[in-house]
Design brief:
Layout (H helix, E strand, L loop, with lengths): L3 E2 L14 E2 L5 H12 L4 E6 L11 H13 L14 E6 L11 E7 L4 E12 L4 E7 L5
Length: 142
């Protein structure tokens, strides 16, 4: 699986950037996903993960690896500076199921502060691209 670049910046809209589409039929799950993504000053990135990603639920251990891939990806070509991130994914609380919109809470350690940070993983489908992963990082103080 080779990730492809698709990113959204911290709560900005740029018509040139691919947009992540939330697809779900349950109002509660949509509300929960919206909160996890845009809570406070969360920083949000998204990464295409390949055409078969999410056809089956992504187990927690694999999701943790995929979240780390999204955290480590270089988004400079997308106009997003994540150079200040030095986060290591430590744990995800469950599997990511593309049939539901429910976010999965993960924990990452910030190397600069040795503090735990909450990271939310959500399924994403990108217009004109393949399925992917949306990662929302709660900023310090959230």
């Amino acid at each position: 699986m080779v990730p492809t670049a698709a990113a959204t910046g911290p709560r900005r809209h740029d018509r040139r950037s691919p947009r992540a589409r939330f697809g779900g039929s349950h109002d509660y799950e949509y509300s929960e996903a919206r909160w996890a993504t845009f809570n406070g000053d969360n920083e949000v990135v998204a990464l295409g993960m390949g055409g078969v990603y999410g056809m089956e639920p992504v187990p927690a251990e694999q999701l943790m690896t995929d979240v780390q891939t999204a955290l480590d990806f270089d988004y400079r070509d997308e106009g997003i500076d994540t150079s200040g991130w030095d986060l290591t994914a430590k744990e995800c609380e469950g599997e990511l199921d593309f049939e539901r919109l429910a976010p999965v809470q993960c924990t990452a350690e910030d190397a600069a502060t040795s503090q735990s940070r909450t990271v939310w993983a959500l399924p994403g489908a990108f217009f004109g691209q393949e399925p992917g992963l949306i990662v929302s990082v709660e900023t310090a103080g959230n």
